[in-house]
Design brief:
Blueprint lengths: L1 E4 H10 L37 E3 L2 E3 L1 H12 L8 H27 L6 H16 L3 H10 L4 H21 L8 H13 L4 E11 L5 H16 L4 H8 L10 E5 L7 H8 L6 E7 L2 E12 L9 E9 L7 H16 L7 H7 L3 E9 L5 H8 L10 E3 L3 E11 L9 H27 L1 E4 L1
Antiparallel strand pairs: 1-12, 2-3, 2-12, 4-5, 4-7, 6-7, 8-9, 8-11, 10-11
Length: 443
Amino acid sequence: MLKYSATAIGAVMLAGTAQAQGVQVAGSDAFNLPDDISFIVEPADPNIRRATARVNGAVITGTDVDHRVGLILSAQEGQLPPEEIQRLRLQVLRNLIDETLQVQEAAAQDMAVTNEEVEAAYERFAQEGRGMTAEQLNAYLTSIGSSARSIKRQIQGELAWDRLLRRNVQPFVNVSEGEVNELFERLQASRGTTEYRLGEIFLAANSANRDQVVANAGQIIEQLRAGGSFVAYARQYSQASSAIVGGDLGWIRLEQLQQPTLEAAAKQMTPGQLVGPLEIPGGYSILLMIDQRQIGMADPRDALLSLKQISIAFPEGISPAEAEERGSSFIQAVSTMNGCGDANMRAAAIGASTVDNDEISVRQLPEALQSILLNLNIGETTPPFGDMSEGIRVLMLCGRDDPQETAGPSSDQIMAQLEDERVNRRAQRYLRDLRRDAVIEYD
């Protein structure tokens, strides 16, 4: 059994160089390492370590790891290769260790999260996040190789960490009125310029583990581009406080990032684009451009539309020739409709069905339809779309409420953004301190 305490190891290393006590030296120079390393005992292969640990006496079992991995794999569209699953297991174990440290720290400071609080949060997650009852979510989790206990453990860690940050970090973060006013004036001067909604996965790194972190980031990007859920990966891997909301930074101006590397990258991105890993102080970031809009200007995609869907289905076994003839008749009939007023009657006459939606924003629709609908007049329809299995349909525009211009973020919102950034930086240091002082045993 391997047992180590980061604090104890540091004390032993410094014992031979008493003159250096109390001195912080950056990089490998702190240890005066030789260029030629000769191992007395061959290092263990990290790929064959069993994923179980004790964190200050609290047990993390292999089952705990299995259930969390099952939860993540359920969000993947494709099958992960064995080496990626092994890497995922090691990351999950590190996350479980962090969660355990957070829960222990909250309990040590008389802020323990109760079972009742966890159960209440779990029920809210089931209803609001998954549209299920707690019992239905229990069954679903079991079916994917996970468990309710795994979700509850993560909830407990998040509640504990939020509680710790609220008492031990947030009260000591100060943002001056002058800073807010300066940024507010810059934003007002930039009215009409672009505002961004970004997702971020931040991976902490130092000189000792930089190469491994970059490799991990590359694997994450590969999985995201293969269809992985950015929100799921951010919640599991990101070491920023935004991980709890799936990495979503909300609507921001680029200068609010306060990182030239991120600003330069985001400026070149388009919605849906993923970039990284980008090196920034303290580690690496993976960015996802969720959306863009212009500050203080109405976004046409926020318009609320009243739409009528007109569709015709093909019976099973219909021949291609019959389908083509019926489709042509449908398209011809739609082209002669005089707006939404007589669409229902005309549709019924040709065996088509209609569905109304009187309040749907343009941005809720597939991108291929957005630009088409924005250029339609009332009573006009989109080009027909569909196939032999789904039938043919069109969308008819029955009404449109254009969005109002916005004033941009308020002073309070700007202050909250700046405070969040500073809380995030202190939170990272807080968690590093907890890791450093922990006694961790691996089986």
